[in-house]
Amino acid sequence: MTAAAFRQTPLFSRWRPIDAARPAMSASWWQWVASTDSLTARLMVAGGEKPFRVRLLRQGVGWPRQDEAQALGIGAKRYAWLREVALCLDGTPWVVARSVAPLSQVKGQRLECLGERSLGSWLFRQPGLVRGPLEVTTHSPQFASVNGIQEGCAWGRRSVFYHGCKHGSLSLLVQEYFLTAMADDLGLPSR
Ligand SMILES: C=C(O[C@@H]1C=C(C(=O)O)C=C[C@H]1O)C(=O)O
């Protein structure tokens, strides 16, 4: 198997708790994948002089995937608010992310008009924010290739953020996939 093929071969299927994946994860990747503060802030620091940009791939209303609905505890036939982005350093996607929230909970939240501002810059300012447990995968996200981003994925992670506000409570599933371009630019191991 070539090195490139290896990097794109999933180690295991679907999502599993981060602790179960730890033996397969290098210490350098653990620093990234297990972090619970803002990824946007971390990417900006790691990128140094490189300009950071959120490229909006898609935002709107759609069906959640079954595993997403399950993670949010909603029926798969409930409409959801979906947002897909690429987090780019100097124009190169390092991370792609797909966030999902029950549509009924998004009404009146600032989320709808984020545009190319980072979700993290809004989310981590919310008082009483709680982050659920992290789960990881080595599968590549399909929405990246649909948008012409062909990079393999070193690690993907997801967790649900919860916060209550005067508009009601919000559960937001955030899925982030660390791309091989990021590993190459930062000199990280393949996994
Ligand atoms: C959740 C964060 O927000 C980041 C920005 C996102 C966006 O703009 O859609 C999505 C996932 C993130 O990695 C973060 O910075 O930790």
From TrEMBL:
Pathway connected to this protein: Cofactor biosynthesis; ubiquinone biosynthesis
Residues at which substrate binds: R83, L119, E176
Pfam families: Chor_lyase (PF04345)
EC identifiers of the protein: 4.1.3.40
Keyword annotations from UniProtKB, A to Z: Cytoplasm, Lyase, Pyruvate, Ubiquinone biosynthesis
Name of the protein: Probable chorismate pyruvate-lyase
Enzyme class: lyase
A GO molecular function held by the record: chorismate lyase activity
Organism, as annotated: Vreelandella titanicae
Keyword Transmembrane helix: no
Keyword Lyase: yes
Gene: ubiC
Any one annotated GO CC term: cytosol
